[in-house]
Amino acid sequence: MAYCQSILKAREYSDFTPLMTLYLTDTTSPNEIKLARDSGVVFVVKLYPAGATTNSQDGVTDLFGKCLPVLEEMVQQIMPLLVHGEVTIPDVDMFDREEVFIDTVLSPLVQKIPQLKVIMEHITTMDAVNFVESCDKGFVAPTRKKIFLGTDSAPHDRRKKECPCGCAGIYNSHVALSVYAKVFEEAGALEKLEAFTSFNGPDFYGLPRNTSKIKLIKTPWGDIVPMFAGETLEWLPSHA
Ligand SMILES: NC(=O)N[C@@H](CC(=O)O)C(=O)O
């Protein structure tokens, strides 16, 4: 709730509403889910397999062994589960980790608790697309409408990106819409961009669609270099 307040205080140019996320751990209790719902600010729960990505060290080690009562409570409280879909088994090649996660965790999950609303974040493989499309329950919306925009935007230090086990997210918020438009245009599917960007997400979550609008104009732009790009800074601002 404090984090939500600090976001609300910091937002300067927009009236967006932050939908807060609860970080699921092995020790999250069903009662915590109730408290989260009662807080009025927490809207979803995020599942990180422990160690899979940035700041996931406190994530879940055994979803079915440790979290089933919590997942059942989430159904009661109508709280969706956001999923970082990747196993952390060292022997599994990094390009197969999403597929193995689907087979060993996600598929059993939607069978065990079909009423749970699940969002598979930043899907990367055709296996994930096929899986999402094959789900009637959990992923409630009908085919095509259940795939929607999520940028996975994350500003990582260059040394954490360009290394043998680089952080995954890329810093893309400022160009995300332009890049999506380019990709949709190249696929001959520009008419689907608006639903992907603005309708499918809120419809899936059961939230009202935004009424404010953005217009995309086809004109070259973007020759921007942020100040001190590529250089090392000497002072690190942090919360006092
Ligand atoms: N693909 C990812 O692993 N994304 C990260 C964000 C990040 O890279 O920090 C996430 O939290 O989902």
Automatic annotation (TrEMBL):
It comes from the Eukaryota. SUPFAM superfamilies: Metallo-dependent hydrolases. Coiled coil: none annotated. Gene3D superfamilies: Metal-dependent hydrolases (3.20.20.140). Keywords: Hydrolase, Metal-binding, Pyrimidine biosynthesis, Zinc. The keyword Metal-binding applies. The keyword Metal-binding applies. PANTHER family: DIHYDROOROTASE. This is Dihydroorotase.
